[in-house]
Amino acid sequence: MQALAGWPLLTPRDGYPLYFAIADLFLWFTRLAPAYAMNLTSAIEAALACGLLVIVAAEIGGFLPGAIAGAALFAASYTFWSQSVTAEVYALHILFVLATFYCLLKWEQRPTTARLAVVFVCYAVGFGNHLSMILLAPAIVAFMFLAEPRGWRHLLSPQVVALAFLIALAGASQYGWNLRTLWLAADPPASLWAGLRTFWFDVTKSDWRETMVLNVPRSMLKDHLAMYWFDVRQQFGIPGIGAAGAGLSGLALARPRHAVLLALTYAANVAFAFNYNVGDTHVFYLPAHLMMALAAGAGIPLLIARLTPKERELSQGFSRAVATTAAVLLGAYAFARGYHDYPALDRSGDTRSAQWLTSFTAGLDERRNLLLVDLNWQVANGLSYFTKSVAPEVLVARMRDVLLYAPVLIYDNIASGRSVLVNAQAGRLLADAYGPLFELAPEKIVSPLHETVAQASRGSRYVLCVLKPTRDHAIDAGDLQSTIRTLTEGRDISIALDRYAVIAGTVGSQPELVLAEERPFRRQVDLRGVPVEIRMESWLAADTIRRMGFGHVIAGRYHALIVERGVSFVVFADDGAPVLQDYRASLFARQGRYSVSAGEARAFADMLR
To answer: pLDDT digit string (tens) for 94-121?
Structure first.
């Protein structure tokens, strides 16, 4: 997404035209670096969403302190915050969900055709950001049928249906940007119908839907239930979940139509996310989390009014005092959770990506070098942005894109005076395809982890985390054991490689903590006077993408380490600041480079010509 910022072409596969239009406008206005501008855009959209959440909750519950407390609960929730500080579409999606609800509530107060049109417009525009707006449809239709004073048949009248259809077409026109790009490609569609078919396939991710939507194996259903329970507790904790349940009860008693609106929206989004077999399922629960916070903020005051003898509304009497106390308690709870979680959520000091890419491309220049890579798709996307916006002097290509004519490409570059470099996986692809035609020689070597760890002085505080790696990585068990022996002065301590595991202590001593669990956990340990919290914040059976990391090490209140799948290691100082970090078998594991010698490639290249 950051690599596409400011780019005039947007393919159907890219999608999200509204998201990119807003980000591009902000980029043009601020003149900031594209990555920073897009991250900041998400933060602004999230802040606006929190403000609108206060307004919507106050419209439903009629009590501003409760609405503010509900918004605070959602603002401090783990997933919402994590998606609000990166270039992602979910903060804007939450903003449009709330905007649609607000327009719907205004229509309920005065159900005119003009206000109904505004509801349709807001809902249709939201599709330009994320197609999961469709999950609001059952709740919106049910709410309208219940709230329409002229009867549900009016909503099915030809005038209303035609209005909805025309506005839907206007909303869909946002994707004209994506559709237009097809005809600017080197191989444009043969006809309008062929272009529309390609557009629909790509923009709706049809290939993904066939393998991922409603495709969770039955054997994994129990695990997904456990994952959701972990996820919702991660957002709100048990008290927050209880507050949402109490709020929904209050809505059911006092505002049944609004209870239906929130409950159906919650159910549709939970059902979709629960059955979506994708590597970042947790982000698709976000609208459901929003409904819980909205229920708590709007519904608890209504429940208190209903339960107070002789009072049905929040007057200036006893019920209002109790509701105010409840709102203060809920707000204080949200603040306490936010304060506790903030060190883990704070990404302002996370420069790992820039450091990794700078190190990987160090010393390269298009006049002297060509770099051919085969990388994990997330790292490859980062490299695309880096070589476009940060280091355009680095000449790079993806090995799989050039493999068919690699001999010609490599030989011609070597003949023109450029050295050709590959990473390990790209080198394996080249060797598998062309055997002895090329020779590889190490140009940049990555030392084993135990040699890196040996740099830490005796008595240094450290944390070593091991999480089951993804399929494209493998942990070097021998190197890991050597690392543990280096840290503990020769002690043999076995550690699981297929779950959540951690060793924490001081270099040269018996570890203070050795732990392996099947489920995510949080543990606290004191390392020479520094309180350390180790947080495993992911669900390994399902999560392959966690933008905020798969766990965290908080030393004091310093974000000492973001834990990734594979091996993550940190040595930190007295104030908790990291002194030494390293990753293995993960996205951030350092990669070596190899120089390519043409060998016998010249004759083969001539033949390919």
So the answer is: 999 999 999 999 999 999 999 999 999 9
Residue 442 makes CB contacts below 8 A (sequence gap 6+) with 592, 593, 594, 595
Distance (Å, whole) CA 243 – CA 332: 13
- Distance between CA atoms of residues 52 and 497, nearest Å: 45
Structural contact between residues 124 and 136, judged by C-beta atoms closer than 8 angstroms: no
User: Distances from the Cα of 232 to the Cαs of 247, 283, 288, 374, in angstroms?
Assistant: 16, 12, 9, 37
pLDDT tens sequence across 229-255: 999 999 999 999 999 999 999 999 999
Confidence of residue 609 (pLDDT cuts 50, 70, 90): low
Cα–Cα dist 167/185, whole Å = 30
Q: How far apart are the C-alpha atoms of 497 and 466, rounded to whole Å?
A: 6
Q: What's the pTM?
A: 0.92
> 146 near 260, Cβ under 8 Å?
yes
Confidence check: pLDDT of 604 > 80: no
Would the CA dihedral through 19, 22, 27, 30 be positive or negative? Answer: negative
- What is the Cα–Cα distance from 119 to 103, expressed in whole angstroms? 5
Query: Terminal CA-to-CA distance of the chain, rounded, Å?
Result: 37
Q: What is the pLDDT of residues 175-199, one digit of tens each?
A: 999 889 888 888 888 888 888 888 8
Q: Which residue has the tokens 């390392």?
A: 527
- 107-128 burial code (b ≥16 CB/10 A, e <16): bbeebeeebbbbbbbbbbbbbb
DSSP secondary structure code for residue 259 in this structure = H
- The sign of the CA dihedral 231, 237, 243, 249 is positive
Query: Does pLDDT of 411 surpass 70?
Result: yes
What separation in angstroms does the CA of 245 have from each of 75, 100, 300? 19, 23, 9
Task: Give the pLDDT score at 600.
Answer: 63
Q: Which CA distances in Å does 119 have to 149, 161, 179, 271, 587? A: 17, 13, 26, 25, 43
Q: Which residue has the tokens 């698709």?
A: 284
